[in-house]
Structures are given as structure tokens and as C-alpha cells.
Design brief:
single chain; about 0% strand; elongated
Length: about 120
């Protein structure tokens, strides 16, 4: 079971990398007001959602302690990210505020995962 959990953690990190990588590729365009939500951002966020839910289930199945409040905060941030990316995915230009919220919420999600014990 540990191998499965570690494999899902690896997929979760790939999802984060896709979301954050998609954001970073658009940073220069954001400065010009021409940023857009790229498909990698949507796919990364969906990967994070699916693997995150799987990780909670797998850890509970192993009788590991799960900090449900932390998971709830991370899920709330991810829902905001998914909502913004999904709604704005077809727009040619996304306003800098919406785009910045996606980047800030993604970074916050990473830091919550790493620093909140």
C-alpha cells in the first residue's frame, strides 16, 4: 500500500507542476495584459483534485491520521483555482487579478502542504 500512496503522491506533484508551470509560462504575458488560462493549468488542477481525494482515502484506509481541517483548506483553495481556470479557459485574455489569484492560491496550496504539520 505504501508504494501505491507514494505513486499517487508523485502524480499529485505532477499535477501541481502542470498547474504552476502553466501559470509561470504566462507570467510575461500577464504583465502585458495578454495572459490566458492554458490547458495545462486545467489538467493540472484536475489531476491535483483526483489524486488529492485518492490520497485522503488511501491514508484513511491505512489508519493514518488525516488533518481534515488542513485538507479542507487545501480543497477550498483548489476549488477556487478550478473555478477560475475552468470559467476563463476559453477567454483570449484574462485580467491580471484573476490570473494572479490562481498563481497565489496555487503557491499557498504548496506552502500549506509543506509547512502545515
Amino acid at each position: 500500500m505504501d508504494v501505491l500512496i507514494h505513486a499517487v503522491v508523485g502524480l499529485h506533484i505532477i499535477g501541481i507542476a502542470a498547474l504552476l508551470g502553466g501559470f509561470m509560462t504566462q507570467m510575461k504575458a500577464m504583465g502585458k495584459g495578454e495572459a490566458r488560462m492554458v490547458p495545462a493549468m486545467l489538467h493540472g488542477a484536475l489531476t491535483m483534485l483526483v489524486t488529492g481525494v485518492a490520497l485522503v482515502g488511501l491514508n484513511q484506509a491505512e489508519d493514518h491520521t488525516v488533518n481534515t481541517f488542513k485538507i479542507g483548506v487545501k480543497l477550498a483553495l483548489l476549488i477556487v483555482i478550478l473555478g477560475l481556470v475552468y470559467v476563463k479557459r476559453d477567454e483570449e485574455k484574462v485580467d491580471a487579478a484573476s490570473f494572479g489569484v490562481v498563481g497565489a492560491a496555487t503557491a499557498a496550496n504548496v506552502f500549506i502542504a509543506v509547512l502545515w504539520v
